[in-house]
Design brief:
By secondary structure, the chain is α+β, with helices and mostly antiparallel strands. The chain contains two helices and five strands. A five-stranded antiparallel β-sheet has the order 1-2-3-5-4, covered by helices on one side. The protein binds guanosine-5'-monophosphate and zinc ion.
Amino acid sequence: MSNDCIFCKIIEGVIPSNQIHSDDLCVAFPDINPKTKVHILIVPTKHIPTIKDLGHEDEKLMGHLIGVARDIAKKENLEGYKLQFNVGEKGGQEVFHIHLHLMGN
Ligand code: 5GP
Ligand code: ZN
């Protein structure tokens, strides 16, 4: 938990979100400013700022995020979709707590 992290606050329930998934490792909720018809963020409960900060111990976690995104996409009846990590300010990252964008129309 990082005190000034908006996604940690969402995970803790301090900031409300419309959670559509939650398990031991991650939560998922709709993006507040959707760029596609379905735009969901899959967010690990562990505070890791960026992809650059990942360690070998996080490999299982990162695979899990992709599996959760696939399951949500199936429930949403998305035939095709994009999965995206923005990495660093120059990569378009605004929230420095790793999150996977699931985007589909
Ligand atoms: P990034 O640019 O860091 O990859 O993506 C951050 C995403 O988080 C943006 O698409 C933005 O709309 C979303 N976001 C920022 N603040 C909130 C919030 O308080 N609630 C939700 N649900 N999404 C947020
Ligand atoms: Zn955080």
